[in-house]
Design brief:
Blueprint lengths: L3 H21 L4 H22 L10 H14 L5 H8 L3 H13 L1 H15 L4 H19 L17 H4 L22 H16 L10 H12 L5 H45 L1
Length: 274
């Protein structure tokens, strides 16, 4: 995985390239591409960097996870343990799920943004803003440590990544604060945003298959015991909230623009009369 230091250096380099191209007035499309790439690398650097910090003691991470576990039972959500046991007899599938969780999300998100920028430029700004806002708010919430279900004793859940030697946290050595950033699931939120982007931008009859991507992601994060159901549900609600806020802001701006258009003819008429 790309470290936050390398990602930040890439973002700064791309930002410098963008500035130079714009100063020379020769950038055109490439200046825009460099700027968007700088934003993407900067977002990745922030995500990686913020994952190493908490603003509260990690001692409360397990009690909060336990509260989520009991809340799910009150809400009659399916047991993560029961769902995981359906897949444990199939080691190749579980290992594929581990890889899916570890490496797929950011490349898919990046590919979606590249596709939007190249083929559906009108849809790109809103999706880009949605990703930035969702990720930023998620990182703020994750400063409050919440343990993932794989670290919660007494549930019967298996840490599938550790079982097959695929844990990303072993790369760092020792404890990693990112292990306690389970709520909300950024992976599920990104997958939902990608699905929304594909369904709303594409005109292909196959576009509705993209709706399966967030559902599969939710299944993967649960089977690998990296997230509770509520982590994914919270991410989905946060995406909806971000989209609603953007729509509200657009409505306010549109209303102000309409008022301005109505005022201008009146002023012109008064000017002519005077």
């Amino acid at each position: 995985m790309l470290s936050w230091q390398y990602a930040l250096a890439s973002a700064i380099l791309l930002a410098v390239v963008t500035a130079v191209l714009r100063l020379l007035r020769r950038g055109g499309v490439w200046a825009g591409v460099a700027f968007e790439a700088a934003l993407l690398f900067g977002l990745y650097a922030l995500w990686q960097f913020a994952g190493s910090f908490t603003v509260m003691s990690p001692d409360g991470a397990l009690p909060r996870a336990r509260w989520l576990w009991h809340a799910e039972r009150v809400l009659h959500l399916p047991s993560e343990t029961a769902v995981q046991r359906l897949f444990l007899p199939h080691p190749l599938l579980v290992q594929a799920f581990n890889l899916y969780y570890d490496i797929l999300h950011f490349p898919v998100l990046g590919a979606c943004l590249v596709w939007l920028y190249a083929r559906h430029r009108d849809r790109y700004p809103q999706i880009r803003t949605t990703i930035v806002l969702f990720t930023g708010v998620s990182l703020l919430i994750q400063f409050i440590p919440v343990a993932p279900p794989r670290l919660l004793p007494g549930t019967g859940l298996v840490d599938t990544a550790v079982r097959y030697g695929q844990s990303v946290y072993s790369w760092h050595g020792g404890f990693d604060a990112d292990e306690l950033s389970a709520m909300p699931s950024v992976h599920v939120g990104w997958a939902l945003i990608v699905a929304i982007a594909v369904i709303t931008a594409s005109r292909s009859r196959w576009r509705w298959l993209a709706a399966g991507y967030p559902l599969l992601t939710l299944l993967v994060v649960v089977v690998t015991a990296n997230h509770f159901w509520l982590d994914g549900i919270a991410a989905g609600l946060l995406v909806v909230l971000v989209l609603a806020v953007q729509r509200l802001v657009r409505g306010i701006r549109s209303g102000k623009s309409s008022e301005g258009d109505q005022v201008t003819p009146v002023r012109r008429e008064m000017s002519v009369r005077s």
